[in-house]
Amino acid sequence: MKKVTVMTEGTIWKQILFFSIPLILGNLFQQLYNTVDSIIVGNYIGNEALAAVGSSGAVINLLISFCIGASAGAGVVISQFYGAQKLEGVHKAVHTTVAIAIVAGIILSVFGVLTTPVLLRWMGTPQEVFPEAVIYLQVFFGGIVFSVIYNMCAGILNAVGNSRRSLVYLIIAATSNIFLDLLFVVVFHMGIVGVALATDISQLLSCIFILAFLMKSKEDYHVNFREVRFYTGYLSRIVRLGLPTGLQNIVISLSNVIVQTSVNSFGSIAMAGFAAYIKVDGFNILPVLSFGMAATTFTGQNVGAGKYDRVKKGAVVSVVMGIIYAVVIGALLLLFAPQVIGVFTQDQKVVEYGVYVTKYFCPFYWLLSCL
């Protein structure tokens, strides 16, 4: 029995919403990686370590922007072939996607390890934070290849409507990350290295699970490693469709690097408070991104099936769902900002700074201030 969702028939809002739920849960569990790292670091190691972990996010997002774009492009190509029932196209697009993931992951891992000190200096990272930030990022980038492969493979499953399988593996990985964080930091006292190593091992587990599933699957998206290569025409098509998303992510990531550089100039306390806010903000934005991912699969399948009227209606439904969620979660965050930021640290100065940043970046705060 196929555990996939064909989105070319049926009620549009139900299909997008129900398909989004596993994506939302999966993204939330994935966000747990760095969030749990930050909570344990802030409570068991200290503010400097929390600042180091928090400031790494801007660098990580900047370097993986292309991979995110390539994943989006691959999802569009695969979903279009799947919607049109062109099985050979699905087969070649899937194997090209896996090849991109392996090559891009290795390049990103090596590049990240080698350039981390330079990037952190460019960002004006304070000296009291710099050594731990370098160690954390270098160990993290040592295992980034596993994360890239997992996310690209999850994109394959999402493109054919199977968003539940990747959720299972993310739950396993997130749970193991929490356990390993506590083991390495609280029991073995490995400090910042233990936090990064726990993340790498968890990402390795999710990578192994999803590759094993794709290799054992009997569905049209089955992966045979002997056939993993860059198929003529498919690589260029994936890159061409993913390039706009990649460029958009690069622009956003660069702006975040600039903001992080500005925050770094205020010292480790400000960096720690900002780090806590960034983790909370990640949870806020992920459901909206999940609606977008669901809309991508919905659009790709319906374009492949030639049902352009459903594509237009799906776009409107996705935007409305995103707006409703943003309004509700923005209001809740304003009400409970002190309690949420307080989870990351007991230092009152860090909490106060985190709450201030939360209000500053929330448009509802400025709206309410004008009333």
Please tell me about this protein's structure.
- The chain is mostly helical and 371 residues long.
- 83% of the residues lie in helices and 0% in strands.
- The chain is built from 13 helices and no strands.
- It has helices at residues 12-44, 47-63, 65-83, 87-122, 130-142, 144-159, 164-187, 191-216, 234-264, 268-304, 308-341, 348-361, 363-369.
- Helix 2 (47-63) packs across helix 5 and helix 6 packs parallel to helix 8 (191-216).
- The chain starts with 11 loop residues before the first helix and ends with a helix.
- Mean pLDDT is 82; it is low at 365-371.
Compact overview of the structure:
The protein is mainly alpha-helical. 83% of the residues lie in helices and 0% in strands.
Features:
mainly alpha; 13 helices; globular; 371 residues
Rg, alpha carbons: 21 Å
N- and C-termini, Cα separation: 56 Å
The stretches of 5 or more residues where confidence is low (pLDDT under 50) are 365-371
- Helix segment tally: 13
Largest beta-sheet characterization = none
Strand content: under 5%
| Silhouette | globular
By secondary-structure content and strand pairing, the structural class works out as mainly alpha
Provide mean pLDDT, rounded. Answer: 82
Helix content: over 70%
